[in-house]
Design brief:
Structural class: alpha/beta
Number of strands: 12
Order of helices and strands: EHEHEHEHHEHEEHEEHEEHEHH
Shape: globular
Largest sheet: 7 strands, parallel
Helix content: 40-55%
Oligomer: single chain
Distance between the termini: 31 Å
Number of helices: 11
Radius of gyration: 18 Å
Strand order of the largest sheet: 3-2-1-4-5-6-10
Length: 311
């Protein structure tokens, strides 16, 4: 299958790696791609195109050149990077998504897979059981609000023009990356493991919440590939995670099993979350309809991440 992926970051490159392994023809579209990172994660069997999702002609040219059967949209700003300049955050996340949807329409692409986030969940609502895809959404931070808007925009586009749509709500993604988009969890886990490898006290930074669901990047890539290759998409929204909450304590326990003797402490106050995540994702729909099953629990993800850093 021919696949165009916007964003050559953590999810984009690990999705490309999984798709290339399945024999797909993959094109990565990114504003400032790190060629060394792409080569390290994906390998050489991928085409790299430089461009900005905020510029519709550039996105259209990439679609016309790649002739994809599926477009995977991962490009965007995360967390503090989106919040720093709200206009830019909305322009990149919402404006870029509209351009991708328009290019999908004009290019006659059959399926669009969009990287959404657990951040759309409105955690002020009662969390009495694992969160299904029907759990209420909302948010007043730029990142959460933009992702909620993107989901609604894409649903409307798909209804108007008839292309297939998968909105993948990822848990907090961590793994070997460069975090240009601003992933607090990704940066926090990288700093934690790098310090432990060097024999220093591992900093538990503000990017690591007191309670959160996390997913290793290779599982995130597998989730994307599952959505790309699913024969049917009976629904549009799918939770992609592990179904297990992580805390600083469980992270450290897993790390100490991988690197005996590692120590850690908070490097500053935790991220101020007005409403804590009390329940993990319900993965029933993704398992049944996409065939998605996480392969890395927290310890396995940390073990593989440490191996990548050593390499």
């Amino acid at each position: 299958m021919r696949v165009l992926i916007t964003g050559a970051g953590l999810i984009g490159c690990h999705a490309a790696r999984e798709l290339v392994a399945r024999g797909d023809q993959v094109t990565l579209f990114d504003l400032t791609p790190r060629e060394d990172y792409v080569a390290r994660v994906v390998g050489g069997d991928v085409r790299l195109v430089r461009g900005d999702t905020r510029e519709l002609p550039a996105v259209l040219e990439a679609v016309q050149a790649a002739q994809p059967e599926c477009v995977v949209h991962t490009a965007g700003l995360i967390g503090g990077n989106a919040q720093q300049v709200p206009y830019r955050g909305f322009q990149v996340n919402i404006g870029g998504t509209i351009n991708v949807a328009e290019a999908v329409r004009l290019g006659g692409v059959r399926r669009l897979v969009h990287a959404s986030t657990q951040g759309v969940n409105d955690l002020s609502q009662p969390q009495t059981a694992p969160l299904t895809e029907e759990f209420p959404v909302g948010g007043d931070a730029v990142y959460a609000a933009s992702k909620v808007a993107c989901e609604q925009v894409l649903k409307a586009y798909a209804a108007a023009y008839g292309f297939e749509l998968a909105l993948l709500r990822f848990a907090g993604v961590y793994g070997y990356g460069h975090y240009t988009g601003g992933s607090g969890i990704g940066q926090g886990m990288h700093a934690l493991l790098q310090a432990a490898l060097e024999g220093r006290p591992a900093p538990i930074g503000a990017g690591i919440p007191e309670s959160n669901e996390m997913i290793y990047a290779k599982d995130a890539g597998r989730g994307v590939a599952a959505a790309v290759h699913a024969a049917r998409l009976p629904h549009q929204v799918y939770n992609i995670g592990t179904g297990v909450l992580a805390t600083p304590d469980t992270i450290m326990q897993a790390l100490q099993r991988v690197i005996p003797g590692a120590t850690a402490s908070r490097s500053g106050p935790p991220r101020p979350d007005r409403h804590a995540r009390q329940q993990p994702f319900d993965l029933t729909r993704a398992r049944a309809e996409l065939g998605y099953e996480p392969q890395f629990d927290l310890e396995a993800g940390i073990r593989d991440f440490v191996a990548e850093l050593r390499r």
